[in-house]
Amino acid sequence: MAVHAHPDDESSKGAATTAKYAAEGVDVLVVSCTGGERGDVLNPSYGEVPGGIEGMQALRREEMAAAAEALGVRHHWLGFVDSGLPEGDPLPPLPEGCFALVPLEEAAAPLVELVRSFKPHVMTTYDENGGYPHPDHIMCHKVSVEAFEAAGDPERYVGQGEPWNPLKLYYNGGFSLVRMRAVHEALLDAGRESPFGEWIDSREARGVPEREITTRIEAGAYFEQRDAALRAHATQIDPEGFFFAMPREVELARWSTEEYELAQSRVPTNLPEDDLFAGLRDGAS
């Protein structure tokens, strides 16, 4: 079970991994906490989306369905409303009723119920900083950890299904500084311009600490599915932009893995890992 804040997050974070496991016969469920209805159109060639929040919500549902098909995964909407990304100094208040303002137990309850019905052995989500400080990403972390820790406790979330203990919880490695430096240098070595230098400089200037990478999944064979899922989110992903700046042959040669941080495990495992199911394939229940 891969838990994400918005539609399109599943395609930019761990998408090749989910496609790989789905192709290998693993039942993979992607969960979107919100509908992404307050997201801006980030693809400059797309144009305006009519109908306000409702129009954006309907369009992003269509995009998500196409992305899930490209990855070969199942998908579930958790049903909360996008909080938007506040901007300004001071930051404006978040919209009333949005995901980030829902009390934790209320927000986690549908995810606990879903964990108990789907019965995942492995869950993936974001670290406590959300991967980046979007309020929905931080809330996604909170509800995911709550569900992982509470779903197996019969005294918690009573009436929301039979208890089930998922066995491993991972945080997406995402855009680690090590990875971005590698692809940046690969572009320069190939005599191409790199759009990643400014991103690297900004992250270094802010002193953002590097997360520990415990698990690397060889997923290069599924970059095509990842790219198809990214393109499915046409309002969000510029096909000429950031995510497609690295020629795929260069990416495959320099960095063909996706990275994770093992946050919690209820089974013994040896680090580093090359499989999210390490420690589980020997029949652990």
Your description of this structure?
This protein has 285 residues and is an alpha/beta fold. The chain folds into 2 domains: 2-174 and 257-265, LmbE-like (Rossmann fold, 3-Layer(aba) Sandwich); 177-209, no CATH class. Helix content is 36%, strand content 13%. It has 9 helices and 7 strands. A 4-stranded mixed β-sheet has the order 4-5-7-6, with helices on one face. It has a 3-stranded parallel β-sheet with strand order 1-2-3, with helices on both faces. The protein is globular.
In short:
The chain has helices at residues 9-12, 15-23, 52-71, 104-118, 135-150, 177-189, 197-206, 223-232, 248-254; strands at 2-4, 29-34, 74-80, 122-125, 168-172, 215-218, 257-265. By secondary structure, the chain is an alpha/beta fold. The longest helix has 20 residues, at 52-71.
Number of strands: 7
- CATH architectural grouping of the largest domain: 3-Layer(aba) Sandwich
- What is the CATH C-level name of the largest domain? Alpha Beta
Helix/strand order, N-terminal first: EHHEHEHEHEHHEHHE
Span between termini: 17 Å
CATH superfamily of the largest domain: LmbE-like
Largest sheet, if any? 4 strands, mixed
- Unreliable stretches (pLDDT < 50, length at least 5) are none
Strand order of the largest sheet: 4-5-7-6
